[in-house]
Amino acid sequence: MKYLMAALCALALTGCVEEENSMPDMSGTCGADGMQHLVGQPRDAFDDSSIDGTVRILPPGSMMTMDHRPDRLNIELDEDDIITRLWCG
After folding, report:
1. Strand pairing class (83-88; 55-58)
2. CB-neighbour burial class of residue 83 (10 A; exposed 0-12, middle 13-18, buried 19+)
3. For position 74, what pLDDT does the model report?
4. Is the pTM above the cut of 0.85?
5. Are 88 and 33 in contact, with CB atoms under 8 Å apart?
6. Using only C-alpha atoms, what is the Rg of the chain?
7. Which of 49, 66, 67, 46 is nearest to 57 (CA)?
8. Beta 73-77 vs 83-88: how paired, if at all?
9. I need a labelling partner for 46 at 20 to 30 A (CA). Which of 31, 65, 76, 87 fits?
């Protein structure tokens, strides 16, 4: 009976495993693709009110959580308050 239960559990878990190459395409879900023209611009060039979703501004050396939120726009700044990178996550 133990072996039967173990086999059933193993069989049930195989449905939960994803293929290695089945990563969903999350590019552009926060609108970062359409804002790449802001890279190299001062932070003031970004209009916060134009975004409906969550925005995270990241000054140099700032700590950030590692949770992935495809709807969140991340804006990375350098020491001179210049936008160096925009991405979703």
Report:
1. unpaired
2. buried
3. 95
4. no
5. no
6. 20
7. 46
8. antiparallel
9. 65
